[in-house]
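hey m, so remember when u said the tokens were messed up on ur end? i reran from scratch. heres the input so u can diff it against urs
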Amino acid sequence: MSEAGNTFADTALNASDMGSQNALLKAGALQNAIITSPNFSLIATDEKGIIQLFNVGAERMLGYSAADVVNNIRPSDIHDPQEVMARAEALSAELGTTIAPGFEALAFKASRGIEDIYELTYICKDGSRFPAIISITALRDDYGSIIGYLLIGTDNSARKRVELELNQAMAAADKANRAKSDFLSSMSHELRTPLNAILGFAQLVETGTPAPTPTQKRNIDQILKAGWYLLELINEVLDLALIESGRLTLSKEPVSLAEVMLECRAMIEPQAHKRDIGMTFPRFHAPHFVKTDRTRIKQVLINLLFNAIKYNRPHGMVAVEYTVKPPHAIRISVCDTGMGLAPEQLEQLFQPFNRLGKESGAEEGTGIGLVVTKRLVDLMGGAIGADSTVGVGSVFWVEFDLTTAPELEESHPEYNPLARPSAPDGGLLHTLLYVEDNPANLELVEQLIARRPDLRLLTAADGHLGIEYARTHLPEVILMDINLPGISGIEAMKILHADPLTAHIPIIALSANAVPRDIERGIEAGFFNYITKPIKVRQFMDALDVALIFAQTRASRSAQKTLL
């Protein structure tokens, strides 16, 4: 090789050596930057867990110098001992073996080749503490033997502070929701109490003897119309508040759409006839069941049906249709011949308190009925939507998944709810006890019972007196207000149920506490039935009949057992 060739080769080798040297220097600089970084702690131990490396970040976070800890302590010595103990116990329970607390608990997973990340509290040299996230990895030699452990830690104080603030905000929001729900429950009760007198006495006058004159009848109709509308508004606002607070409870079960539609038809057709609106309902050629809350799906359908009547044109039509949508859904559509909605109105359809320009119209409303309807449908796992053409009409639809029919249970009816008891031979009357402190409510029920020749009414103004009367007179049925002076109606009911002398008497709650959770609590507490105020006379009378027949059936069975 020539001298020039040798020179070229030497130059190339020198350049290669310089490149390798630069790479090594760069790698060394990177390693040094990692070790000396103040932003995270870097702690390395030997195979026994004794600290061998304690970087600048660890010194800054914990206040120890490397000289304080290297070859002196284990990482678990600067962690909260109770947390280390809890970690050892959790690992022991998980793996079914005993794991010693201390560094062994921290390094257990890493020693088995499982990277472990956990949260623990660091204890600083000055005794202060802070939460940290620790990642631990086993270090191995070329033969796979563990020669130590590497722990990389970061200060978790900021995230914990944000979590705490978020939890506090959520707790405050939950408290505000509970306060709002309690306020609405109380307000509903306060509104329903006077409304009970207004609607109750209006119904008495409407059906009284002698019959009201035509002018009086029109006046009574206006009172009843306004009263029932006010009750509807109270219910809608209450429903919306419960849904928004997440406290509305639903009982999902297989519900027959044919049965629900028949019930809705019976309730809505009189409204359509009053407004001269024609209606058509589908005939279900096969049973279709959806898994929903029976009461709430009726509420949804009735709201859609009533809106279709309410906003229809004179002598219009409402058609209810259904379509089975493969693979397993069904759509119920309510079609009307109203004025229809423009596209921009459809976009605002489910906004609270937005009546889409109907505020100045003749029809009353709040603009929250459809909002409640949509949220109920969402909660039941369904879908809702609308299509409309201006000048032609609108179609509102709801869609639910189909489910299998419920298994039929053998029934053993104890009474016929359509049969009304009459005064028994010999003139003996059934005794009814009403425990109520509101004079207007007492007067209303007294006048209602006066129309029943088979009943004798006793009244008590508080729970203690009601208990005493029940034990003395042994009435067949007890009506019990909830909010009573002294002890509540629920407490009085529990005392009566615990007494063998009165335990058999069916007790009906008659209360202005109409929030669904209040009704559920009442039934769960042991009331035979729960009637909300304002009283609907027919519903009230039917509930009494059911309770009376139940009481008579139970008394008959007790007599038979005594004879045997």
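this time it looks ok to me. The chain is about 50% helix and 20% strand. if urs says something different then somethings off w ur setup not the seq
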